[in-house]
Amino acid sequence: MAVTIQIRDLDESVRDRLKARAARDGESFNTYLKRLLAREAEKPTQQEVFARVRARSETSSMPSADLIRAERDAHDSGRP
Questions:
Q1: CA distance 20 to 16
Q2: Distance CA 2, CA 4 (A)
Q3: Are 74 and 80 in contact (CB under 8 A)?
Q4: pLDDT tens-digit map of 6-16
Q5: What is the pTM of this model?
Protein backbone atom coordinates (compact mmCIF):
# COMPACT_ATOMS: atom_id res chain seq x y z
CA MET A 1 0.00 0.00 0.00
CA ALA A 2 1.35 3.42 -0.92
CA VAL A 3 1.47 6.15 1.71
CA THR A 4 1.88 9.89 1.61
CA ILE A 5 4.60 11.56 3.65
CA GLN A 6 4.73 15.24 4.47
CA ILE A 7 7.89 16.88 5.75
CA ARG A 8 7.40 20.11 7.64
CA ASP A 9 9.92 22.89 8.15
CA LEU A 10 12.35 21.66 5.50
CA ASP A 11 14.81 24.37 4.59
CA GLU A 12 14.09 25.67 1.09
CA SER A 13 17.75 25.37 0.13
CA VAL A 14 17.64 21.63 0.91
CA ARG A 15 14.54 21.22 -1.25
CA ASP A 16 16.14 23.20 -4.06
CA ARG A 17 19.32 21.09 -4.01
CA LEU A 18 17.31 17.86 -4.05
CA LYS A 19 15.13 19.13 -6.90
CA ALA A 20 18.26 20.04 -8.86
CA ARG A 21 19.66 16.54 -8.34
CA ALA A 22 16.39 15.01 -9.49
CA ALA A 23 16.44 17.16 -12.63
CA ARG A 24 20.09 16.30 -13.27
CA ASP A 25 19.17 12.59 -13.06
CA GLY A 26 16.19 13.14 -15.38
CA GLU A 27 13.67 12.22 -12.68
CA SER A 28 10.70 13.92 -11.16
CA PHE A 29 11.23 15.25 -7.67
CA ASN A 30 8.78 12.67 -6.32
CA THR A 31 10.52 9.75 -8.06
CA TYR A 32 13.92 10.95 -6.88
CA LEU A 33 12.76 11.20 -3.27
CA LYS A 34 11.13 7.75 -3.37
CA ARG A 35 14.34 6.22 -4.72
CA LEU A 36 16.42 8.08 -2.11
CA LEU A 37 14.20 6.92 0.75
CA ALA A 38 14.04 3.33 -0.51
CA ARG A 39 17.84 3.19 -0.79
CA GLU A 40 18.23 4.58 2.73
CA ALA A 41 15.72 2.09 4.13
CA GLU A 42 17.76 -0.80 2.67
CA LYS A 43 20.93 0.21 4.50
CA PRO A 44 21.38 -1.59 7.81
CA THR A 45 21.52 0.59 10.90
CA GLN A 46 24.65 0.71 13.02
CA GLN A 47 22.91 -1.41 15.65
CA GLU A 48 21.98 -4.03 13.02
CA VAL A 49 25.57 -4.21 11.77
CA PHE A 50 26.90 -4.62 15.31
CA ALA A 51 24.33 -7.33 16.03
CA ARG A 52 25.45 -9.25 12.93
CA VAL A 53 29.10 -8.91 13.93
CA ARG A 54 28.32 -10.16 17.43
CA ALA A 55 26.36 -13.10 16.03
CA ARG A 56 29.21 -14.05 13.72
CA SER A 57 31.86 -13.74 16.41
CA GLU A 58 29.80 -15.87 18.79
CA THR A 59 29.71 -18.69 16.26
CA SER A 60 33.41 -18.55 15.42
CA SER A 61 35.44 -21.49 16.67
CA MET A 62 38.65 -19.46 16.76
CA PRO A 63 39.37 -16.25 18.71
CA SER A 64 39.77 -13.18 16.49
CA ALA A 65 43.38 -12.66 17.64
CA ASP A 66 44.23 -16.15 16.38
CA LEU A 67 42.51 -15.48 13.05
CA ILE A 68 44.47 -12.24 12.61
CA ARG A 69 47.72 -13.96 13.57
CA ALA A 70 47.08 -16.77 11.06
CA GLU A 71 46.31 -14.23 8.33
CA ARG A 72 49.51 -12.30 9.07
CA ASP A 73 51.57 -15.50 9.14
CA ALA A 74 50.11 -16.57 5.79
CA HIS A 75 50.85 -13.15 4.32
CA ASP A 76 54.43 -13.12 5.67
CA SER A 77 55.14 -16.58 4.23
CA GLY A 78 53.83 -15.53 0.82
CA ARG A 79 50.82 -17.87 0.89
CA PRO A 80 47.47 -16.51 -0.31
A1: 6
A2: 7
A3: yes
A4: 999 999 999 99
A5: 0.60
The alpha-helical segments, DSSP class H, found in the chain are: 12-24, 29-42, 46-59, 64-76
User: Could you please report the per-residue DSSP string of 19-31?
Assistant: HHHHHHTT--HHH
Which residues have C-beta within 8 Å of that of residue 74, sequence separation ≥ 6? 80
Can you tell me the distance from the alpha carbon of 36 to that of 47, in angstroms, rounded to the nearest whole number? 21
Residue 28 identity? S
- Angle separating helix axes 12-24 and 29-42, nearest 10 degrees: 100
More confident residue, 78 or 34: 34
